[in-house]
Structure to design on (311 residues):
């Protein structure tokens, strides 16, 4: 039986905010796995040597990496998102948000947090100052950016909000299927995944022309393709409803691998792909679309991030 997911400005941190052991960057990428059911962040090498683990008191539901080796954690029921310095293990600051935060994204223009209760995306500067809020469609969730445009998939709506980052204003809406989830951007296209809602299950990935928003192609990927990762010349889509990883080349499915149990997250380094199974508490290493290694994680691994190697 599948498990179900639990669902202004900078505040000075209180003394009760925990400090953790510093986990140094190495000369190879590091895998950061957040397990939701026991609220742990585990650090692994590409070959699954565990380098440390942080145990949180707050019920976080997601995370995103920031510049300068920092990481942000948020939770649906929390009124603050907390930023930590990975190098020192110290908390840096809290961002004031409303309950209902379901997603976070960061790039060179700032930090963006999507709220499914207020149907807004709130922006903060990289030095953690509030920099505005914008109304979106119903239940904004997946986000990415390209060429100074922020793309927001509205899960309970039927469009992607296109937001100009310089003005923080919506300039366009791209039509997509309702209950879409997951997004990946290239110079030409947007790849939009789909989860579905209730008895309706999404089983395809939509390709949109990034300049016009027109659907150029749909790819059958049953079922529930919700996460993407790129490695080399290929793009990979993870369908968590069917426990399958799809390989795409030139917008065609070229291979499929059944892996993990109820996976929500996929990541890639030059060496391998990595998929975490939420129900089997296992992180899988994949090379040439074959599982070559696996390791047990915390309880309910929900999200995987790649911490880049030191330069």
């Amino acid at each position: 039986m599948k498990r179900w997911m639990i669902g202004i400005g900078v505040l000075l941190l209180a003394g009760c905010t925990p400090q953790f052991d510093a986990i140094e960057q190495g000369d190879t990428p590091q895998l950061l796995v957040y397990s939701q059911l026991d609220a742990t962040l585990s650090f692994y090498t590409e070959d699954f040597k565990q380098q440390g683990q942080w145990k949180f008191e707050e019920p976080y539901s997601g995370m995103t990496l920031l510049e300068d080796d920092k990481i942000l954690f948020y939770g649906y029921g929390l009124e603050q998102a907390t930023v930590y310095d990975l190098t020192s293990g110290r908390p840096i600051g809290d961002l004031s948000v409303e309950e209902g935060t379901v997603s976070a994204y960061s790039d060179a223009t700032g930090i963006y947090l999507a709220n499914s209760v207020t149907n807004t995306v709130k922006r903060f500067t990289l030095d953690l100052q509030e920099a505005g809020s914008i109304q979106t469609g119903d239940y904004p969730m997946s986000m990415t950016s390209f060429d100074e445009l922020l793309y927001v998939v509205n899960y309970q709506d039927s469009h992607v909000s296109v937001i100009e980052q310089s003005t923080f204003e919506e300039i366009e809406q791209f039509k997509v299927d309702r209950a879409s989830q997951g997004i990946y951007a290239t110079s030409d296209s947007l790849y939009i995944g789909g989860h579905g809602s209730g008895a309706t299950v999404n089983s395809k990935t939509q390709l949109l022309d990034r300049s016009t928003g027109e659907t150029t192609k749909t790819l059958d990927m049953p079922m529930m393709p919700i996460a993407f990762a790129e490695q080399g010349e290929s793009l990979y889509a993870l369908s968590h409803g069917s426990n399958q990883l799809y390989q795409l080349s030139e917008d065609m499915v070229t291979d499929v691998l059944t892996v993990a149990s109820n996976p929500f997250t996929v990541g890639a380094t030059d060496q391998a792909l990595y998929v975490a199974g939420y129900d089997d508490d296992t992180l899988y290493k994949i090379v040439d679309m074959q599982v070559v290694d696996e390791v047990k994680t915390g309880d309910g691994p929900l999200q995987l991030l790649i911490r880049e190697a030191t330069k």
Q: What stands out?
A: The two ends are 44 Å apart (CA to CA).
